[in-house]
Fold this protein.
Amino acid sequence: MRNISHHPKTETLAEYAAGRIDEARSVVVSTHLSLCAECRLAVADFEALGGACLEDVEPVAMENSSMAAFWERAGEQDILRPKEETPRAANDFDFAAAQPLQAYLSSPIDEIKWRTVAPGVAQHVLQAQGYRQGVLRLLKISPGTQLPKHTHKADELTLILRGAYRDEIGEFRPGDLADLDDEAEHTPTAFGDEDCICLIATSAPLVFKDLVGRIVQPFVGL
Amino acid sequence: MNGVELAVVTPARPKRTGASAAAEAMSGLLLRVASSGDRSAFAELYDYFAPRVKGYLMRSGAPADLADDLAQETMLKVWRKAQLFDPQKAGASTWIFTIARNLRIDAARRAAKPALDPDDPSLLPEAEPQADLTVERAERDKKIKAAFETLPQAQHEVVRLHFIEDAPHSEIAERLGLPLGTVKSRLRLAFTKIRKELGDLDA
C-alpha cells in the first residue's frame, strides 16, 4: 500500500468526528479515510472525546420516560445480528472507486461528462448539499497543465483520486489530501502519464470562467 | 438545526470521581443487553443515556420535542444494534455518541431535503468502529477521557462546546468573549495534547 503523505489537519478530523462539517467536505474526508488507517484512528479518538463530552452533558428529562412507552416503540423492531466484516483492500486501492464517493457519482468515473473550463482543465459538479452549504466537484487536469497561482480558504479540501500534481508544498498522489492553511498560495502542475483527477469540496458555489481575461479568479477555491 | 438562540451556560465542572467506573458499568450493561436481551440492563442504560443524549441534541440546537424523539430513536438503535457493540472497540459512551451524532445529521438532512432517504448514501461517519482499530481501543478511550478531564479549564470548555454544541466556532468565540483565533488555538492545543498522551506524536 502506498504511503499517504498529505493528511487532513487534526482540526478537520475533529470537526468530522463532531459532525460539524458539511456534506461536501464529509465526502472528501470519508473517501480519504477509506484508505488511511492513521486518520481513521484519529477520528476514532475524537469520537471517544465526543463520548466523554456526552457523559458530561447536563441531562434533560425525557418527556415520557416510562420504559413501557419505549418498548411499545421498540416492539416491531428486530434486533440486528452482527454481520461479517469485509476486509479492506490493502493493495492497489482505486480511490475513484472508494465507497463513500460512489454514492455521489451518477456514472463510473470513466464515463463522466466533463465540462471544459480552461485548456487542459475540466470539471464535473456533484450533488452533495443535503447537510449544510458546500460544493463538491471533480476536477480533471491534463498532465503538464499548470493552474494559475491561486489562494485557498481554510475550509477547502482537495483529495487526489488519480494521477498526480506537484506544487510549492510537494507532490500529491492518490489518497493525498490537501487541507491548506487559509490564504495559502500555490501553483499546481499535473504530471505523469494520466489525467490528474481531484475531488474538491469548497464552502460556496464557484463559477469557473474562461481563462481569457480573469486568470486567477476562476481558480480561487480549487 | 442551527440559528437557535443558546444561552451562555457555564455549569460548574462536575466532580468526576468514579466517572470512569460508571463508564465501564455502562459497557457491562450493554453486553448484558447484547448477550441475553436483558431488559432491566437496558432500562439502566436508558435512564443514564437518554436524558444525556436529549441534552446533547438540545445543546446542538434541536427543539425539545425533536431532541426527545431523536433521543428515543438513538436508544432504539442501541437496543437493536447491541450485538454489534464490542467493548474492545469503543466505550459505551463513544458508541452512543456516534449513533446520536449520525441521527442529528440525518435529521438535519431530512429537514433540508425531505425526499432524501437518510439511510441511503453512506456519507456519514461510521457508527461502528473499524476492525483495524480494535487494538487497545477501550484503553485509548479511557486515556482520552482522563486527558479530557485534566485539560485546563479554558481548553476543556471549548472542547466540550466543539462536540456538544453545534454553533460555529465564530459564535462560540463571541459567546465566550474571545477572538476566534483563541478558540481555534485552544482547540488545536487540546486535540494535540490529548493525542500526544496516547503516543501519536505525528497526529
In short: Chain B has two domains: 22-130, 151-203.
